Amino acid sequence: xxxxxxxxxxxxxxxxxxxxxxxxxxxxxxxxxxxxxxxxxxxxxxxxxxxxxxxxxxxxxxxxxxxxxxxxxxxxxxxxxxxxxxxxxxxxxxxxxxxxxxxxxxxxxxxxxxxxxxxxxxxxxxxxxxxxxxxxxxxxxxxxxxxxxxxxxxxxxxxxxxxxxxxxxxxxxxxxxxxxxxxxxxxxxxxxxxxxxxxxxxxxxxxxxxxxxxxxxxxxxxxxxxxxxxxxxxxxxxxxxxxxxxxxxxxxxxxxxxxxxxxxxxxxxxxxxxxxxxxxxxxxxxxxxxxxxxxxxxxxxxxxxxxxxxxxxxxxxxxxxxxxxxxxxxxxxxxxxxxxxxxxxxxxxxxxxxxxxxxxxxxxxxxxxxxxxxxxxxxxxxxxxxxxxxxxxxx
Length: 395
Known about the structure:
Blueprint: H1 6-14, E1 22-24, E2 46-48, E3 59-63, H2 75-80, H3 82-99, H4 103-108, H5 118-138, E4 145-148, H6 152-160, H7 165-180, E5 187-191, H8 195-205, E6 210-216, E7 219-224, H9 226-239, E8 243-245, H10 261-267, E9 280-281, E10 288-289, H11 296-304, E11 307-308, H12 309-317, E12 324-328, H13 335-342, E13 350-353, H14 362-374, H15 389-393
């Protein structure tokens, strides 16, 4: 009888040649050896799961924007996931001199009265997303493409290597300071219409409300004055349309952001992204960016203009060929939109969450990893077993 070593198990899992993925779930690498199971009498280690029919298994990380954060997010991972805690601690060391307060302290002991403030909640969101990326990488889950919704583009650019940590933190801090200056100048709401129909509706009502984000073919976010949104909401109710004020006192992605253009561009003077081979699809333009164009003016436009999320996802699943969308954020606020945009495509696309209010710890990240394995996605096991790099190259 030959012992099943960790190397043998992982090499067998990642070596090409089979149509059916094998899911191997154990508490840790030490549990893979020295126990051996003869065949066919005893095979409790392996759970053979049918493939999902994915053509490519090409993964895009989709980074949530504002609205996914919640008081208490990250607490369980800080306690139980050493990789997550290490990355968040590193982010904290970078952000604290810029902010004047500690994101690590705020995540551990949240002051609920301040979490509605954009210059508090969004640095916390970035720290959690950075920690999640590191923790997913430790599980072999890495993207081939990234995109982000609104402020989620900062974490996406950091993940892709287009922004180093210092620059990403710089962007987060200056962007949120600019946003904070617009508090009380308007509100935001969601409406159950696609962008073209929503624009026609708004044109007929004659308010100052505009489409702030095109989230799916039948979902938009609106921004404008409280009075204008009240008019839209009353009209939507009469027409039987879904409408909900989302409780934000900041009219992101609308004309009110014009007032902070100089503040933000000057605050980011001299910064630019670095060239990266990993594609990032911009939800500002719907096109691929390579890095150097991510300067201060880009981040003001990211704050001021419409989030073209539908265009970005069309490019992700179309030109980039991604059929695995991993939503990176503390709660899956984009999942419904992603499924609506991909459910009628000729080839299957899976949407995988990574954390939620109900499942905020390591179990959620482990479940995401197993879901990808079940779907036949090739994970990067060299991060889990660095000693395998040479063996995999010759396998």
